[in-house]
Please model this.
Amino acid sequence: MKKVEICINLDPVNDGVKVTEEERKPSKDAHGLVIATNGNYEEIGSQEVAHILKGLSETFDMDCMGNTPFVAVFNKKKVLRNEGHKYLAGSVLIVKEGEESIELLSSEELEQAKLAFISRLVALKMGDASFSAYEIG
Model:
């Protein structure tokens, strides 16, 4: 949503109409979770979730996160394969599987989703590099 301010302080250099984008904040109880294998995360709102899903529309894949209602959405082009297993190093979008579509997470579910994601991290080594990766499947 745009915020319109009219500032008149008898200052011809700075007076006038100022239009800015209001900061988008997730609603109190509707979130998507972007979480990375390095431990960083961000709670996002529905517009950001839609933007990510649109960006991944040609390359997305999903993983049901064990015995939880959560699904990890990620770029399938970034999947690593090793000894018959699939892994992802980077970030995923976590949402909840609904009956006919995905759903955003409640505040309580955010913490549960973080724990479910962290519980599926493994340590991988490729050459001299060691890193955490999310185990898919």
Summary: The chain has one domain: 24-136. Residues 24-136 form one domain.
